[in-house]
Design goal:
This protein has no helices and seven strands. With 76 residues, the protein is mainly beta. It has a single domain, classed as Roll (SH3 type barrels).
Length: 76
């Protein structure tokens, strides 16, 4: 599978991880991509883009790290 190109959101949107457990921050949009960090529930994120399917969001953590999570675990 080729990496999907992000569709940049017109503005950054604040969100919170709402999963019941840790969420894997990935290098690209998809479960098959490498995990670069684990994010705890309740952590604030900035949504900086979405993939073309709209199911994955590119997020930035408070420490500046960026990666992808499934949209279902983010609340706005």
């Amino acid at each position: 599978m080729t990496p999907s190109a992000p569709t940049v959101a017109p503005t950054e949107v604040a969100g919170v991880i709402t999963a019941t457990g840790t969420v894997r921050l990935r290098t690209n949009a998809g479960f098959e991509f490498e995990t670069i960090a684990e994010v705890e529930p309740g952590v604030s994120v900035m949504v900086i883009g979405r993939d073309e399917t709209g199911q994955w969001v590119n997020v930035r953590l408070d420490d500046g790290q960026e990666g992808w999570v499934i949209l279902a675990v983010v609340s706005f």
